[in-house]
Amino acid sequence: MIRLIRSLPFLYAMPLGFIWLSYYFRQSLSAQIIIWGIFAALHLYLFLVEKIALALPAFLPVAVYVANFIVWGNGSPLIALLFAALPLVLVHRPAHYHWYAALAFLSLVIPGRFDDARHFTLYILFALAAAIIYFFSRKDFLQRMFGENERGVVKGPKEGPRHAVEDPHLALMKYCERMRLWNKVPVAIKVVELRDEEGLILGTNALFRLTGLILLAIKNRCAIPCNSLLEEKEHLPLLPEYNKRVYFPVGLFEGDTALSIPEYVVVIDAFYEGDKQVLVDTLLPLKDDVIELLRMAATFERILTERKRQEKLFRGAREMLDSFSRERLFNASAWSVLNFVPDAATVLITECNDGEHKGSVYRMHEENGEPLSLEKITPITADELRDAGSIQAMMIEGKIGKMTEIRDINKRRDKNQLFSEPQFADLNRHSQMLAFLLQHKDAPQGTISVFLDSDRAVEPQTKSDLSLLSRILSSALNNIEMYETVQNLSNIDGLTGLYNRRYLQERITNMTSEASRSGMPLAVIMLDIDHFKKVNDRYGHKAGDDVIRFLSRVVKSSIRKVDVAARYGGEEFFILLHNTTHDGALKVAEKIREIIQDAIVPADGNQINITSSFGVSSFPALAQNAGDLVKSADDALYESKESGRNRVTLYAPKPS
Length: 656
Known about the structure:
Elements (H helix, E strand, L loop, with lengths): L1 H5 L1 H17 L4 H20 L10 H13 L7 H14 L4 H13 L7 H19 L3 H8 L23 H9 L2 E2 L2 E11 L2 E4 L5 E3 L2 H9 L3 E3 L17 E7 L13 E7 L5 H46 L4 H15 L3 E10 L2 E8 L2 E2 L2 E2 L9 E4 L6 H6 L6 E5 L24 E9 L2 E10 L7 H32 L9 H18 L3 E8 L2 H8 L1 H17 L6 E4 L4 E7 L3 H17 L2 E3 L2 E3 L3 E8 L6 H17 L5 E3 L6
Parallel strand pairs: 21-22
Antiparallel strand pairs: 1-2, 2-3, 2-7, 3-4, 5-6, 6-7, 8-9, 8-15, 9-12, 10-11, 13-14, 14-15, 16-18, 16-21, 17-18, 19-20
Helix pairs in contact: 2-3, 2-6, 4-6, 5-6, 5-7, 6-7, 9-11, 11-12, 11-14, 12-14, 16-17
């Protein structure tokens, strides 16, 4: 209820209702006082007691209505405020705009007259003003209508990063751009990042092969000044306004520069008429400045990398914790790992449930060069993992640790292969595996394994993050199990422990549809305790409950796990037999009938003999849909009752 009261529709519909009441009782001053007194008291209660934030724009149409049609008598100049408030509401309370416009419009219409030209014109003008202000406030609307012309009708967002952390080399690029004169020497600075045998000019996409003097400077790890370049080998042309160049190979090692492995080359062009060595000494402070800026950029890169890592970790954890089904949870977990670990190729998630160890294999496919989205990721293999000697099975049994790392998987042969079962054999082609145990309060739930094609050792930070994701998966899986437990409790009959009638109706529809798709038969049994009223009358209702509990135990022990048994009514029970013909159902029903007939039921200190009657039907042989299936079984049960009880009757369709 509180959620409804807090909603915008309610906060705007309530003033509209009071406006309508006020207009309806417009001839009575006492009614006006009562109506608006209740309005004020109600809003004070919501604000002071319930702590609900009120919709302030909704008060303006109310105030204008009161002033316009009660105080001024339908001639208030305050109507202009309704128009003036439109852009203000749109700017400061955009979510309220549609509701405010509707309330203001109706506050004009309710007391107005359509046959009055002035009133009708006012309605049209207000509707047009509300629509025009809304559409012309949207940038995408303006862009579609006019585009971004030279006059800048629409100012798009400025290009480029807003902070050095977003572009680690931003400060360096600004320094190189601004440094045009040093000690009265005109200079131009470029920084080349070394990548194996190639160089990348920072701030551009220019990648070139390292040759000539720049390569000589890198090999000798010393500054090389020159008057002219080897044009046929150099890829950094010397501009006409400069006559000398100095190559400074630099590294970011904090110790001796001579020991530092070159990671960058600072290229400084200058116009200088003096000695080259003097020029080198003159430009050394510039080189030192660039080194400090490169070190700062490296720090920013680490910050940016850490932030991206944490963002991926947070997004993955959020998707996992927001999942309320196993399928969604496992999909989100695999998607998170595949996005989080750059070298991850495949993910295997296993779960122990009802004595079975099931495994699902996920792989990140790409669509048009883009990674597969969470909504489209599905397991490429989902089957039971039966190999008790697998790493995953031994982790669950506690034979090995909670985290296992295995390398050189693809080098194992024959019997030494990690996975012997054909459905999981494709996992043997990967290079290494990291497996983590899923457990909650020391109870094993399953495992999550990450397979990598790279031979590089996994970094400790990545292992720690994967361990964290596995713990989040365990927690989310436990939440789903508790949710399913609560759901099951709502579907269980409290007296018998069987399913209740509501759940049965859902299952009948689902199992009938499944049988129709698969072509497999579905049989049903409906049974009823004979003369149950006499049991209650003679022995009491407690004894009757004991009889019902006894019969439910017999039914539960006589069917398979895939079958469904439910309490249909007071002493009526219903059984759904998966992939069973009516002949098979007759045998099950007869077996249950004989057990009940031969049993002596202890009921509230009494020994009671009971019997039951049964009706049997099947789909699609004897019924064409779920409704017919229930009705035919009920008709067969009625036939058993009419024929003397304590018997099993197969439904026989009546001739048309």
